[in-house]
Amino acid sequence: MKRILIIANNDVGLYKFRKELITELTKENEIYLLLPYGKNVDKLIALGAKFIDCPYLERRGTNPFKDIRLMLYFRKNIRKLKPDVILTYTIKPNIYGGYAACLCKIPYIVNVTGLGTALENEGILQKITSLMYKVALKDAKKIFFQNQANQDFMLDRKIIDKSNSYEIIPGSGVNLQEYQVKPYPKQEQVKFAFVSRIMKQKGIDQYLAAAKYIKKKYPETEFHIYGFCEEEYQSVLNKLHAEKVINYHGMVQDMQSVYQKISCLIHPTYYPEGMSNVLLEACASGRPIITTDRPGCREIVDDGINGFVIAEQNSKDLTDKIEQFLHLNLDQREKMGVAARKKVEREFDRQIIVSKYLAEIQNIR
């Protein structure tokens, strides 16, 4: 039996995308979770894990003194717990958890769930973050990347090199039992959906622009939005909802019922993703997708087979691809959904990720 510590920045992602791994690990190991308390923590505890609250983790904070306090808090708990291995997810746990693990001489496995804006955007913050990541990843037993572009980025900038042990895994994968194929809607009316945090980099402006154009030309078409406003879009969404351009539903927990109702998922993001989970869930549910030609999205869509690819920040291209989808008949749309399911079955089954982690943990002595 190993004592395993998992460090993450929030409970939502840990429960939604890693519960299968945690469930498997608890069978023969003692599992501790170090993260801020949230409503999913009790569900994680019910899986058999033990919880340590981390009140100092701010996902987007850049105050160096607070980050030093965070790293010291990680080190304090690692020294007290004495785990056999540490698993980290997302930027701050990867960096400061990596520092703390090194100081305590504990083996650790890192998951780069995406570069984040600090690394992707040129500037002084990118240089600082790159250096911090280089130090944090130096002694990692394994570095998992979720797409080729993220791995190439770190190799090109010499954040990692051939002395590191690294590998690409298919994102967080998707639970194919939880997200099963839903019968494709038989009505001719087409319902599109945007499922994401409402923020500029997720492509909400492009989606709204396309919705305005398409609704005038094809008034029976529906555009739905699911997610909470992380940026100042609430008044815009309320106005367009009142005008019946869109249907804004806010945050929804039961995503399976959402995918069941829709004809196609639109994900026009240009956010630095690791691998888009909403695309994986929609495909697993047998729904076609329209998404951007960028890392974390392009891997999931085969253009013209299970959906369409669009250029980043291009409302015209998105509108054109929506019209192209509208011109397909019902049988063609349904075949796209079938192809989407087959693709995730082949390439993105979450059990692939679970097996990779189990093998790496078993190799640590």
Features:
365 residues; alpha/beta; Rossmann fold; 2 domains; seven-stranded parallel β-sheet; six-stranded parallel β-sheet; 13 strands; 45% helix; Glyco_trans_4-like_N; Glyco_trans_1; glycosyltransferase; EC 2.4.1.-; glycosyltransferase activity
Notes on the structure:
The protein is α/β, with parallel strands linked by helices. Helices cover about 45% and strands about 15% of the residues. GO terms for molecular function: glycosyltransferase activity. InterPro entries: Glyco_trans_1, Glyco_trans_4-like_N. Keywords: Glycosyltransferase, Transferase.
CATH class of the largest domain: Alpha Beta
Give the rounded overall mean pLDDT: 95
User: Quick one: how many beta strands?
Assistant: 13
Percent in helix: 40-55%
Q: Please, how many domains? A: 2
CATH topology (fold) name of the largest domain: Rossmann fold
Within CATH, the superfamily of the largest domain carries the name Glycogen Phosphorylase B
Topology:
Elements: E1 3-7, H1 11-26, E2 30-35, H2 41-46, E3 50-53, H3 64-81, E4 85-89, H4 91-103, E5 108-112, H5 116-120, H6 124-137, E6 142-145, H7 148-156, E7 166-168, E8 191-195, H8 204-217, E9 222-226, H9 234-242, E10 247-248, H10 255-261, E11 264-267, H11 277-284, E12 289-292, E13 307-310, H12 315-326, H13 330-347, H14 350-363
Parallel strand pairs: 1-2, 1-4, 2-3, 4-5, 5-6, 6-7, 8-9, 8-11, 9-10, 11-12, 12-13
